[in-house]
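Lecture 7 notes: from sequence to structure.
We start with the chain below.
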Amino acid sequence: QVQLVESGGGLVQAGGSLRLSCAASGGTIGSYAMGWYRQAPGKEREFVAGITRSGTYTDYADFAKGRFTISRDNTKNTVYLQMNSLKPEDTAVYYCASTNGRTIDIVRGTYDYRGQGTQVTVSS
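Predicted structure tokens for the same chain:
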């Protein structure tokens, strides 16, 4: 069973940047399509970004395009989410997830494993 542990969250001012990491254990991350979700208080979970096993193709939610970048280093069993130009509305718990299926599954909200999440708070 794959275990995913997120890190890198914190408090940042609007306009700032954070880089989230998702470290995997119990499996080879290169075997999975990966993605990031977020959930703000009182709101439903929403897709943020997804990446194919090789890292060749990525997909983003509209709010993430141009500001967020998903990447992966399969040699380090880690997936990243670089977040720039952060806004207060980006405040949420961010989760990484993996799937044995396709990246589109991640986009549609289907995954096999998910981490516990890391809190991102953006102050105005």
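Points to note: The first strand starts at residue 3 and ends at 7. The longest helix spans residues 103-107.
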